Structures
1.
Amino acid sequence: MTTPASGRREESGRLGLEALAAAPLASHADLHSPPGQDPVAILEAQSADRVPELVPIRYGRMLASPFAFYRGAAALMADDLGGAPRSGLTVQLCGDAHVSNFGLFATPERRQLFDLNDFDETWPGPFEWDVKRLAASLEIAGRANGLKRKQRERVVGTALSSYRQTVHIFAGQSALEVWYARAELQPGLPELKKLLPKAAFASTEAMVAKSRSRDSLQALAKLTTTSGGGRRFISDPPLIVPLRELRPDVVEQVNDWSDRLIGSYRESLEADRRELFDSFELVDLARKAVGVGSVGTRAWVLLFLDDTGSPLILQAKEAVDSVLAPYAPGPVWENQGQRVVEGQRLMQASSDLFLGWQRTEGDGGIVRDYYVRQFRDWKGSFDVDRSDVHTLDVLASVCAWTLARAHARSGDRVAIATYLGETDEFDRAVAAFATAYADKSERDHAALLEASRSGRVEATPGL
């Protein structure tokens, strides 16, 4: 017989108190970097299996600013968090919950949501790892934007308070209420208008409007051409390289890979979506460099057309082991693309209509996993690099609410709420960690810059 719901809540409360005894809230203030850690070596290890000609672009993008470096250094932070005291309260982590990995996208019902939008590193682990990743990103972004210390403290404090209070709200709700919670952008715009200064709201409203034009039609106009016959991807190496321009042996391998992709990816979709997918025919592929930390992993854009000539552009992105996997026990995934997709479905309020995965044998006979999604579907993000204190403060609150909702779906929300308590002790501890980590991240950024200057690594800026 199962335990009554009231008994489960009491058990959750007990687990929260046990976690508090094992890892007091104040312990989260401390930074536990491994002695002798070489940040450049960790990045180089990540780059070893990436497309060689794209690795310098990755380093160039990371060197653009301390915040850009932080975005690409999830593996470094995983190494730092791995030795820290941990609550033991496990959730499905985003694994890279920095402020720029939250944004807008469309649901299958054509509503626009604000949610997490990057799950390459998703993995089960202690909830506070995501919270620390978000808090440190806000501190680093605030420094980059010229915010004063008190302003940065306000922004980071807003995020941490919002997370804690939201977890308490969800702890009092039913499982279905938590599951149905979502941050819809259009209904929320009037509330943003009350909170943001006029100029900041105007830029937010413009971003929302722009995001609604970012779909397959917009991508078709930007990324393809009709010169020389049918619709094909443009050539803009090294950022976009059509299949027709790759080596003949690679073309042969990818053609075979794409045939198998259609079959195995299709099987990962739900039955009704397979019917929709079957309406389209693949007409072209291109390799495309994406992101900051992801640059160099194998990523492809695939152009499909239906019988009316209407486009569907999918992105197939290589999925490798999560950077968190060495530091937290977790399931053994036969397919890393499936890991990403299942983690995304668990954390997001609603996921991409065409989200799926596949595995194939690539160059050199190496088996590689991919996850597949629409390339653009009303996707939009806030311009963190130019956000003032008011905009960043509101963004911090919404991101923290979103993260708390994602954790409440997969973790024991009552245990986490009990652990956090009603005071701001956890907030103050993680805020201190965020400041210390921002200092460390600046040193790591300087180390990569010195490695570039000395010739240890090659960096290509401006791409």
Note: The mean pLDDT is 88.
2.
Amino acid sequence: MAVEVRVLKETASGERRVAATPETVRKLLAAGAQVTVERGAGIGAGFVDQAYADAGARLDDGDARDAADLVLCVQPPPPADIARLKPGATLVGMLQPQADVARAEALQARSIQSFPLEKLPRTTRAQAMDVLSSQAGMAGYKAVLIAAQLAPRFFPMLTTAAGTIRPSKVLIVGAGVAGLQAIATARRLGAQVEGFDVRPETREQIESLGGKFLDLGVSAAGEGGYARQLTDEERAVQQQRLADHLKGIDVIVCTAAVPGRPAPKIISTAMAEGMKPGSVIVDLAAETGGNCELTRPGDTFDHGGVTIAGPLNLASLGAVHASEMYARNVLNFVSLFVRDGALQFDWDDELLAKTVWPERPSEAAPVTESPAAGAA
């Protein structure tokens, strides 16, 4: 019989995204799969149950999860829900199995073959499957809107009968996908924008979006497009030059992150306290500890006249487009192994071999077929 695909209803607090849309459901059906969507799974993202039914999916209340061969989610299900999955099933989502012992144990107890999409190699071929990039774009956009709302000033320059209003000076820390989207958004709002990143190769990207590259004279170019750790001497120079510069900045949006590690501390307490009253810091890196030493994840507060915000799960605030992008990423990934109504894994494919958890032994056979494989 055809592979059974289930789209979970997210249970994490505040999570509005969904792992499949009516559009991607149709494409899964065209690949020979049978798709079940849990009722209400797409409501938070604007996709009603009837839209999934019209696309050809079955709807249920989540009572038959143990029948699914392939399970799609955004955030990891809690251990109790993992315990209800079919033994040996395949789970795809942003799972972070090693971040929670109970979650990892639950996955292993059910012999769940997991594909944590945050582990996906960031290669040219994988771009259409890169959930970190697609969701970071939405997060960067929303972070600037939050900053504009918190700031007690206009972003654009205005000429009024009461005089000229100077544009806000906005600094975006980090020029990854989220940072570049933040730069573009702040520019659209009319701010005077600078971008700061320790990787010198980001200068061209920042300037292409209309921002000014903040050069502090310290380079941390590393491998794979990520930054390396700075030496103590380099960090001291960077910190002093940055502290001096921040005294004239109105808004900082922090986006710097290192995959799999705590966010680097870039804005010290002294730097924040040196900013002028009415300044705003929005720390997009709050979920992994924050780029600012004062950040409190999930909280917005005043510190000596400076407003500091540490919003969580910003991509969920743009649930419609974030879900559309995420669902397409997921579809492109599962298309690597959903073929002719069956699950067929080619372990010579580095995108599968380097994403799967637990990691497979190197002597594993190149191609395996799931128990669900067979005629549709």
Note: Residues 369-376 have pLDDT under 50 and may be disordered.
3.
Amino acid sequence: MGAKIKKGDLVQVITGANAKRGGDLGKQGKVLRVFPTDSRILVEGVNVVTKHSKVGQTDRGSKTGGIEHIEAPIHVSNVALVDPETKKPTRVGFREETVTKDGVEKTVRVRYAKASGKAL
């Protein structure tokens, strides 16, 4: 079975704390990385955590380390794919379409947004 959410997709957070309480509910972002074994994804600008790394020095003498803000993985069930037509969260379906290329017919599986029926 193909993955419903892939790298580069636009997703929206559908569960969790709302923005008034410092959460990410309703935020949209691009998927940076997918961890299929853990069922987690890394979303741009979502679940940002503060990481403290030890201050060091490079060979050229510049300082490294300090406080960094990085994205942490979020569970795939907490996000929904954004429909390209309505810009709202939607479910994902799969359908088989026949494509003709260079006179050869080929059947391919296509992901589509269930709300609008548009291919993703």
Note: Residues 56 and 89 are 43 Å apart (CA to CA).
